[in-house]
């Protein structure tokens, strides 16, 4: 594998730390972020450069000599920012990254999009899955600003890819579960009457997807859902999906849910096929490990 110079915007963030650690074993990695990595972040040999994605000059300097840029910086949905902030930072910031990367002669930009692009996580009565599983061919109808900002960023990425001077790949992570947030996520999905679609991806699996998106040659203008094979709901997927959605969609891969009753409502088949990536998680095992840890902690007390 060719050793690449990879710049990661937002590398000091919760996901960014996992991505940088995953990349650093085989590549030269630059962390371009407003804040330096936390003191407890793994020492992986990455170089830190202070950079603001809203400042083109910062990005031009950070991207100098880079082969690949992985763009993670932006405002996260969980932060509850004002709508205008999501549109301003996530869309303008993505444009700045794409423009500065093209100017610098970067080969490829990997954008961190989101499941929110499809609008299904909004759980609106007027917008439900048109097929199961949902894949990249499914129509996107976001209403809220965060999802709209990601949709615009992907469209901008496609426009740069069409120019033919730079490759652009967009990854759409499902709900990212970090080791330190697993308990919170389990509490969320286990809440009585939870009206949701019970999708997830571990931070480690997501980091490997970003590495694959940086390394696999010949891919541009493509988007990928990045998620676990299974659901985080303990019951068979078609059972709880029928209750929550009111009815199952007409386009339904019954064979998939027969062979794997707890299969996710989102497909990762495209990422498997084109990126050679596959998740390694099993939510039943994650639950068991978390329960064992809690038991050990209670015994210590």
UniProtKB/TrEMBL annotation:
Q: Where are the annotated coiled coils located?
A: none
Q: InterPro entries of this UniProt entry?
A: Epimerase_deHydtase, Lipid_A_modif_metabolic_enz, NAD(P)-bd_dom_sf
The EC number(s) attached to this protein equal 5.1.3.2
Keyword vocabulary terms for this entry: Isomerase
Could you confirm whether the keyword Isomerase appears in this record? yes
Question: Pfam families given for it?
Answer: Epimerase
Give a yes or no for keyword Nuclease in this entry. Answer: no
Question: Could you tell me which residue ranges the NAD-dependent epimerase/dehydratase domain spans?
Answer: 6-180
Q: Which domain of life is it from?
A: Bacteria
The molecular function GO annotations come to: UDP-glucose 4-epimerase activity
Gene3D superfamilies on file: NAD(P)-binding Rossmann-like Domain
What's its top-level EC category?
Answer: isomerase
Q: What is this protein called?
A: UDP-glucose 4-epimerase
* Native species: Pseudogemmobacter humi
Lineage, top ranks = Bacteria, Pseudomonadati, Pseudomonadota, Alphaproteobacteria, Rhodobacterales
């Amino acid at each position: 594998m060719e050793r690449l110079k990879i710049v990661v915007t937002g590398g000091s963030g919760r996901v960014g730390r996992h991505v940088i650690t995953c990349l650093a074993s085989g590549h030269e990695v630059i962390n371009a972020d407003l804040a330096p990595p936390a003191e407890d972040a793994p020492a992986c040999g990455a170089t830190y450069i202070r950079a603001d994605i809203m400042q083109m000059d910062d990005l031009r300097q950070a991207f100098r000599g880079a082969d690949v840029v992985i763009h993670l910086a932006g405002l996260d949905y969980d932060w509850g920012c004002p709508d205008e902030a999501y549109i301003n930072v996530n869309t303008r910031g993505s444009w700045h990254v794409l423009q500065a990367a093209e100017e610098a002669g970067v080969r490829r930009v990997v954008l961190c999009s989101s499941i929110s692009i499809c609008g299904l996580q909004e759980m609106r009565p007027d917008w439900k899955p048109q097929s199961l599983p949902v894949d990249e061919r499914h129509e996107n109808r976001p209403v809220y600003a965060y999802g709209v900002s990601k949709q615009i960023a992907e469209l901008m990425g496609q426009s740069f890819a069409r120019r033919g001077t730079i490759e652009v790949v967009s990854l759409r992570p499902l709900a990212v579960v970090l080791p330190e947030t697993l308990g919170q996520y389990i509490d969320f999905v286990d809440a009585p009457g939870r009206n949701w679609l019970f999708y997830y991806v571990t931070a480690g699996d997501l980091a490997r997807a970003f590495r694959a998106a940086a390394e696999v040659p010949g891919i541009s203008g493509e988007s990928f859902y990045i998620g676990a094979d299974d659901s985080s709901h303990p019951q068979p997927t078609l059972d709880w999906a029928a209750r929550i959605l009111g009815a199952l969609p007409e386009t339904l891969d019954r064979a998939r849910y027969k062979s794997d009753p707890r299969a996710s409502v989102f497909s990762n088949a495209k990422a498997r096929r084109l990126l050679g990536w596959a998740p390694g998680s099993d939510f039943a095992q994650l639950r068991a490990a978390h329960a064992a840890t809690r038991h050990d902690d209670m015994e210590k007390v």
